[in-house]
Amino acid sequence: MRVKNRLFLGLALSLVLTLLAGSLPPAGQSAAKSVGKESISIETLLREHEEELDNYKASLQQAGEDTFREKQGELLRAQAQALHNEAKKLRGQMEERLQALSEDISQGILRQQLQLMLVSLDAKQQEAHLARIAELETEMKQVQAKLEEEYQAQLDELQSEHEQRSRKEAALLKAEIEQAMDDEFAQYQLGLLVELETQIVKKRSTLASEDANR
Question: d(Cα 189, Cα 5) in Å, to the nearest integer?
């Protein structure tokens, strides 16, 4: 996450210095000294303001990164809770379907077991009932496996949707914070430029007064 330099501050300041330098008195020893003093003084102001701008940019950068981490953490926690709730709901729906589909099978198994316990059966009949119970149990397992497979597929799709949503929301959050940082940095640059121009004018006036009093 980077703060973008929208204003070419260095170029703007160079233009300001060029215009100011153009208003100096004609060349001469005294004028040359005045130009030299003014150039040194203005260069000092430039360095101070550039350092101030760099410090502000670094501070703004850190604040933006901290804000992004905090907001992203809030988004992730909310998304995790939403995913948990939806997965729980999906699991409940699957269990309801399993109960509905397996009810007839369970009753069939129970009837076969009761026949074995309460009715006198020969060996062949007992074997037939046991075989039917095995078939019903296999059918029950198949129903459970199919529903579990469907649940897992739906859960995977749900997780994928949440991951995509998470990436989109994080990208939007990052863009929003970066835009706010860029706007704030641009405003700070403008304010700094106005302040620098004012200081340059005052410095020139002071130097001019000093030269006039000599």
Answer: 9
